[in-house]
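Annual report, structural modelling task.

Input specification for the magnesium ion complex:
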Amino acid sequence: MGAKTIAVLTSGGDAPGMNAAVRAVVRSAISFGMNVYGVMRGYNGLLNGDVKEMNMRSVSDIMQHGGTALFTARSPEFNTPEGVKKAADFCREKGIEGVVVVGGDGSFRGARDLCGAGISCIGVPGTIDNDIACTDYTIGYDTALNTAMEMIDRIRDTTESHDRCSVVEVMGRRCGDIALNTGIAVGAMATLVPEVPYDFERDIVERMKAAQRTGKRHYIIVVAEGVGHTQELTERIQAATGIESRATVLGHVQRGGSPTLRDRVVASRMGYHAVELLNNGASNRVVAMKGEQIVDFDITEALNMPRIFDENLYRVSARLSI
Ligand SMILES: Nc1ncnc2c1ncn2[C@@H]1O[C@H](COP(=O)(O)OP(=O)(O)O)[C@@H](O)[C@H]1O
Ligand SMILES: O=P(O)(O)OC[C@H]1O[C@](O)(COP(=O)(O)O)[C@@H](O)[C@@H]1O
Ligand SMILES: [Mg+2]
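The model returned the following structure:
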């Protein structure tokens, strides 16, 4: 028997496209004859009773906006056995039988715990990092990639005009996917990711000198946040090569902005799939994308899957960047 009353929340770092996922959950739920609540500020809304009943119009005009209309939070209180019990008790009080959690791996751990406390949960991957092992794609990734690319193109203009080296840090706490893809798209001379250790002399200094001998006069180096020490690295490059160097940390600009078509469509498909699962009585699942197909996995199995780094793409990047 499927859930009759469900809720939707967004949790962890926001990502462009989360609004399209919320809209899809609300509209699908209503079309299946369910009642649906929007939970404010991630798991905090379940702890503080901050929920609102949604109707068809509650999610009008939000899809084109970045951020999340439900707001988001990282909730330390929920991340305790007492917090999970309190949230589950609140759901029971409200008659909420199922919760769709749009967020990253941390949020899925929370969803798994809430399932353990008796509430059916479905995870929908929403994070710009693309760092969730079970899915080829996370909502927000495409928008973040395009924003980072556009920003680095701008940095290139000034880098070129000054014959400089620019070291640009992009987001990705433990995952080099944003760095690797934007590095290829902007023609970076080197791309550093947390998955592959690098050697300063071999991978940076010697490459720059070799490129210089072919006539190159300006350089873009893309570094994933997870590699760290971007300012220090920039100073070392200037000291070792004599080439004037500047560091730019792109930061949260990558998390904002109107979502791309891909993010809106994938988010809509995933949100619909999540509600279909709850309507069929499923629980403890994560929605994922494999190739172009929307599929789902058991949350615990999904959280235990190892992330596979795209070695082939890394090789392409290394060959082209000089
Ligand atoms: N191991 C865990 N058990 C229960 N809840 C968790 C756990 N890890 C994270 N959460 C909850 O999910 C929220 C979001 O997780 P976080 O890792 O910050 O972001 P993301 O979901 O984007 O990876 C946390 O603030 C916390 O409330
Ligand atoms: O919003 P905050 O707390 O500054 O977090 C920054 C982190 O959030 C992210 O943008 C997304 O990470 P999550 O998906 O785990 O929330 C990371 O790339 C970055 O390291
Ligand atoms: Mg995370």
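DSSP finds eleven helices and eleven strands in the chain.
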